[in-house]
Amino acid sequence: MAQVVILTFCVSRSRANKKTIDRLKHMLVMTNSDKRFLVRQQATILRSRKRHTDSAQTDKRKTPPQESASPQPSPDEPERIL
Question: Taking a C-beta distance cutoff of 8 angstroms, is the pair 79, 73 a contact?
Answer without folding.
Answer: yes
